[in-house]
Known about the structure:
- The chain is α/β, with parallel strands linked by helices.
- The protein has helices spanning 11-22, 34-42, 53-64, 78-88, 102-105, 109-133, 180-199, 238-247, 267-279, 299-312, 340-343, 353-365, 389-397; strands spanning 2-6, 26-31, 70-72, 92-95, 138-144, 159-164, 167-172, 202-208, 210-212, 252-255, 261-266, 287-292, 295-298, 319-322.
- It has a single domain, classed as NAD(P)-binding Rossmann-like Domain (Rossmann fold, 3-Layer(aba) Sandwich).
- It has a seven-stranded parallel sheet, sandwiched between helices. Strands 9-11-13 form a three-stranded mixed sheet. Strands 6-7 form a two-stranded antiparallel sheet.
- Bound molecules: nicotinamide-adenine-dinucleotide (NAD) and sulfoquinovose-uridine-C1,5'-diphosphate (USQ).
- Nicotinamide-adenine-dinucleotide binds at residues 7, 9-13, 31-35, 74-76, 96-100, 118, 122, 142, 144, 208, 210-211, 237.
Amino acid sequence: MKVLVLGGDGYCGWATALYLSRQGFDVAIADNFCRRLWDYELGVQSLTPIKLLEQRVAAWQALTGRKIPVFKGDVTNWHFISMVFATFVPDALVHFAEMRAAPYSMIDREHAVFTQVNNVVGTLNVLFAVKDFAPQCHLVKLGTMGEYGTPNIDIEEGFIEIHHNGRSDVLPYPKSPGSFYHLSKVHDSHNIMFCCKTWGLKATDLNQGVVYGTVTEETVGHEDLINRFDYDEVFGTVLNRFCAQAAVGYPLTVYGRGGQTRGFLDIRDTVRCVELAVLHPPAEGEYRVFNQFTEQFTVLQLAEMVRQNAVKIGLKVEIGRLPNPRVEAEEHYYNARHTKLVEIGLKPHYLSDSLLESLLKIAVKYKHRIDRNAIAPRIQWRKTKNVRRDEDEHVLAG
Ligand code: NAD
Ligand code: USQ
């Protein structure tokens, strides 16, 4: 089966492309490397040293004999994406190619507009490309648990039965996202659902929780295959950040009261969930949603787990408490259903002491690459003007 991985140079995309290739799928990658450009813009880099995509796919071919063709270009460019589809004609398409950092989307008007144009226009192009070039292709789209927000009722998998004035219907679950980025995913979901209904496309929206870890069976095979590990305030996600902070003795950055609860999963489960979705396609015209996470934690619980495991390997760790730069509930009800992927075969890797210890050891191994100035949160959700790091440094220098 031919699977096109859009965003295959990124954190989830690279791990997924290799995993699917090893499972025997014919994989191609498309990416425009904007993620690497955002590192330059923000003045940060992955904790782990990652190689150029050319080196990565060459190393994979040398190691396994499996070739992964690469298409370089922007999904928001119709000529590019239509050329990719006409050339590769995928049976399934895994769409990771979006700007995925909530803080980046909240920097200012320019970044909010960029995020929504990049994500919403990119996905619209993908939908038209499927319709025009590969109508049988199954679109597997990465959404986010953050589309739902934190309502005071149980969260269902995409749809909820509503009884109203004596009548009932099954309708999309209400959305209450918390950033311009999360909003872009809601807009995508509506567009995808509409195209399934109108054109008979088939799509799976994977509402993924926060991913942690960096190692998969494939990426440990050779140093040229190493995956990225973000720890900075913009692209770093909470558990990976806490591990990097522990490695350099930086007090763990718990925002606000720390009762924020989210769904989490190991990157090894991300790649398996995508495979399971690809292997079990929906019917023609069907738009379905899977909630893709394995466990839920509060931010404070994670900080405490990191602290305990860090102490075991001789690190001194304090839990810091920072004013929350975001506008979000800091203590709330959270109970999100996540059974559909388990029903089709997911066997979760739960967060364990051994996994935390190995993540901490990776962070310690590369701690010389950590810039402590990239850790503190500067981007504010509230109505203040955000100052970018380069401007900040300019102001300080002046
Ligand atoms: P990432 O930023 O590491 O990777 C995204 C990749 O897409 C990058 O290589 C980037 O260059 C590419 N890309 C972005 N816009 C593009 C465009 N217009 N044209 C071509 N390439 C483009 O992000 P990630 O962490 O791998 O996330 C992948 C997807 O999974 C995103 O859609 C994200 O919203 C979703 N997701 C991620 C997480 C997480 O914790 N990392 C959690 C839930 C959902
Ligand atoms: N948080 C802290 N301290 C930190 C970083 C984060 O307390 O140093 C808190 C945040 O305030 C938030 C929670 O941890 O309450 C999660 O933040 P995050 O940055 O780890 O994750 P988030 O911004 O939600 O975004 C990430 C990915 C995004 C994906 C999302 C899944 O970057 O692409 O969509 O996780 S979900 O959270 O389910 O929406």
